[in-house]
Amino acid sequence: MVAPVIRAVERTWVSVPLRPRHARHLTRENWDWTVFEILRLRTDSALVGIGETMCYYTWGRVPQAQVDRVIGHSPFEFLWDDSLGAGLQMACFDLAGKAVGVPCHRLLGAQVRTGCPVSWWANDMSTEDWCEEVREALSLGYLSAKLKARPWRDYLAQMAVLAGLVPSDFRFDADFNGFLRDAGGAGAYLSALEQVPGMSLAESPIPQEDVAGGSALRRKTRLKIALHYGSPPVETALREDVCDGFVIGGGASAVGRQAAVAAQANKPFFLQLVGTGLTTAFMLHFGAILTHATWPAVTCHEIYEDDLICDRLPVRSGYMTVPEAPGLGVELDEEAVARHRVPEAMRRRLRGTCTGCAGRRGPRWSTRWASVARRANRPPGYGMTSPPATSLCSIVGSTWRSCRTTAVPSGLSCAGAVRRVLCDCEGLVCGCRRVWAAARAGGGSHVCGPAVPSAAIEA
Predict the structure, then answer these.
(1) Domains and CATH numbers, the chain
(2) Contact between residue 71 and residue 7 where contact means Cβ atoms under 8 Å apart
(3) Which of 107, 252, 271, 323 has the fewest Cβ atoms within 10 angstroms?
């Protein structure tokens, strides 16, 4: 066999629309999740390597220097080089697999499973929308859902409703992103949550760097605790036994290293590689060879109107079959790419706005919620109400006494704002990551009030 030589790299940006429910809710936090870069590696033959990068939510964007570096070389030279960035590394694996006629998992290691457990994913939503999400997940073969837990909703009550919609073998995973703040309050909340049928796992219930709190919390709940690998350092996480397993993602080398440590420690994990059908296929090849990837993986590909591949990756009884065709084992939907292509002028504008919160948000991110607050006419006489003992808000903020709650008027143009909790504290509104960080750190600015009655604020 003569190894293919990369002669050109084509880079195409696309903006893939979110499905309606996710368009209503996800844009509060991740309005830029729609932007992808598709990479095609052209060779002297008919073989083409395909990859994608989620431009504003990725373990590694693709530098032009790395694109220049691979031209004139074989993809086999770069398979384990994470410095390539997400899409370029994926395309190298796809091209290499096609060149030798094997699926990517044969290049990664020895196969241990032919189907991988996968999870539906949804950001925080109204109870009504979450019910529709779960019904759709069931209809498509899923038996797991990872749902974002946020302090401006009564998550416990919502999960009790969802549990009534699913069979007994359906599992729910809660992603708190540290919003429970400390082990004292989190223990009580998780004890109540674990009574809900189907609740299985709590991801990052308190800030991950709180090692003493994490260790104490594990003794207070029967729910499995998952932490993103590396925070705290894995040596500390294992020594102090702060979690039952990990969330693992990144480049091929990083995933391999993290998975090997988890396996040595006999810790299960779930893979989290977010993207469309292309990233989902790549994830399946990792899941096929990693012994401890036994928790349902998350790729979020169902949130998009297009998965950018020609044939859907089906889910049966909670498992997705690992592709066996050469390379990624899926075909890029060129018509979809053309349909969602971002014009070059707009691409330059998008690249120029990646300067907001967390280093990847656009400038609109930090002003969205202040604008919502200004436009919301809070009714006269709105009162201070004590949050119930199991309210997520009662745990998030020790200074909740200064907060008020109200429904945002339904006439607001931002559809995702009709279920907001507004606060008097510095005029801030829950939503911006800068504000979230202050809340989790217990600083002087509290941003979350008690939960608004669902009847008053359902979207």
Answers:
(1) 6-103+340-358 (3.30.390), 115-323 (3.20.20.120), 361-457 (no CATH)
(2) yes
(3) 107
Cα-based angle 53, 54, 57 (whole degrees, multiple of 5): 130
Task: Enumerate residues 6+ apart whose C-beta is below 8 A from 139.
Answer: none
What lies within 8 Å, CB to CB, of 131 at 6+ separation is 161, 162, 165
Strand order in the sheet with 48-54: 6-15, 35-43, 48-54
pLDDT band for position 350 (cuts 50, 70, 90): low
Token pair of 347 as six digits = 């691409």
Can you tell me the distance from the alpha carbon of 129 to that of 137, in angstroms, rounded to the nearest whole number? 12
pLDDT on residue 351: 56
Condensed to tens digits (0 to 9), the pLDDT of residues 90-107 reads 999 999 999 999 999 999
Biggest distance spanned by C-alpha atoms of the chain? 78
Q: Which long-range contacts (CB under 8 A, 24 or more apart) does 63-67 make?
A: 67/9, 67/11
pTM of the model: 0.79
Q: Are 268 and 292 in contact (CB under 8 A)?
A: yes
Contact present, 135 and 162 (Cβ < 8 Å): no
CA dihedral 429, 433, 434, 439 (to 10 degrees): 70
Alpha-carbon distances, residue 304 vs 333, 336, 339 (angstroms): 14, 12, 14
Phi, psi of 342 (to 5 degrees): -95, 125
